[in-house]
Design goal:
With 354 residues, this protein is an alpha+beta fold. 49% of the residues lie in helices and 15% in strands. The longest helix has 64 residues, at 251-314. It is found in: Cell membrane.
């Protein structure tokens, strides 16, 4: 039986220090330490993820670790989740659906999941992946799936001079957001070049059928917008008043990001409209070419029918056919056929049927 005078398990006695924040046990593939201010980022031992500092020391040195995959980040989030937080099954939903989401899993822990996109020139396709970050006191865990190469861009941005007043966590989050949006911008540029190439094919005289290419590009644009738009819908959650200051992002930076995403979306929408116009132009061209072909067929048919008619008349085997006994009847018939064909050809050529 528990002594009433003794504190319950898990509850610190009066005057005792608050318990240390829960820290996940993870296996990292790479790690760095990010110093306060503009001192950049330094490599660290992936096997040691303990960082000094109080849980309320927003500007203390932060350890940033890259995990093997998104499941490792979700497992870490499940470890720090409080009893009233989301379950492992709730967190795993983000892994199955590439949607942007910002979720507070504990008092000082924030889970960020967002889709990524990249464009390959070889097959002119947009590919999507996912990026996840678990932000906590003195520790940031990240992972990505796909070839967007978000971590390499993040390293460059974190190492570059930035806001000296921002916390290390803010710098890492800002670098991740900028890397993801920057990748989306590169996707838009790649799609723009592909649309321009398709436009040249549409108006090319070689009559290459561009319908399949137009459809493929419209599908890729839809894929890019599907990966991009959730970002603007969920990232403002980082400005939630309940989110600790050292876990959020700079408001002005986020506003610029939202503006950039909206600009990219407008450009993608313009590309999509241009492809629709190209399809209409192509169908009009096909109709015009079909009419031209029909006119040519009709003109040549008329030219071929004329000598057939003349030959049919001359082939009538009646008794009183004066040309049958005329010495110049056969040459005259041939000349009449040739002259009529030449005359018809010149007429059809003049009116544009040939």
């Amino acid at each position: 039986m528990t002594n009433p005078t003794e504190p319950r398990t898990g509850t610190p006695p009066d005057g005792a220090p608050a318990p240390a924040p829960r820290r996940p046990t993870v296996r990292a593939v790479a790690a760095w330490t990010v110093e306060p201010g503009a001192d950049g980022v330094h490599p660290a031992d992936p096997g040691t993820l303990d960082t000094p500092g109080d849980r309320h020391a927003a500007r203390a040195t932060v350890t940033w670790a890259r995990l093997e995959d998104l499941d490792a980040v979700l497992d870490a989030a499940a470890q720090v989740t409080t009893g009233v937080g989301p379950t492992r099954q709730d967190l795993a939903r983000h892994n199955r659906h590439p949607l942007a989401h910002v979720r507070r899993v504990a008092a000082d822990w924030l889970l960020l999941v967002t889709p990524t996109a990249w464009f390959t020139e070889s097959d002119r396709q947009v590919h999507t992946g996912q990026f996840a970050a678990l932000l906590g006191p003195g520790l940031v865990l990240t992972a990505e799936e796909g070839d967007a190469d978000v971590h390499a861009i993040m390293l460059d941005k974190v190492a570059a001079p930035g806001d000296p007043h921002g916390s290390p966590v803010q710098r890492i989050v800002s670098a991740a957001v900028l890397a993801i949006v920057g990748g989306a911008s590169q996707v838009e540029l790649g799609l723009g070049d592909a649309v321009a190439d398709t436009e040249r094919v549409v108006f090319d005289q070689q009559r290459e059928d561009p319908v399949e290419r137009i459809y493929d590009l419209k599908r890729e644009i839809t894929e890019a917008r599907r990966a991009l738009m959730p970002v603007t819908a969920e990232l403002p959650e980082l400005l939630d008043p309940d989110v600790p200051d050292h876990l959020g992002v700079n408001r002005r930076m986020l506003e610029r990001v939202v503006t950039t995403v909206e600009r990219i979306d407008r450009h993608l929408d313009a590309h999509d409209d241009l492809l629709s116009d190209m399809l209409q132009v192509h169908m009009t061209q096909v109709s015009v070419r079909q009419n031209e072909d029909m006119r040519k067929i009709s003109a040549w048919a008329a030219i071929l029918v004329y000598p057939t008619i003349v030959a049919g008349v001359y082939g009538m085997n009646f008794r009183n056919m004066p040309e049958l006994h005329w010495a110049f009847g056969y040459p005259f018939a041939l000349a009449l056929m040739a002259g009529g064909c030449v005359l018809l050809y010149r007429v059809f050529k003049r009116v544009g049927w040939l």
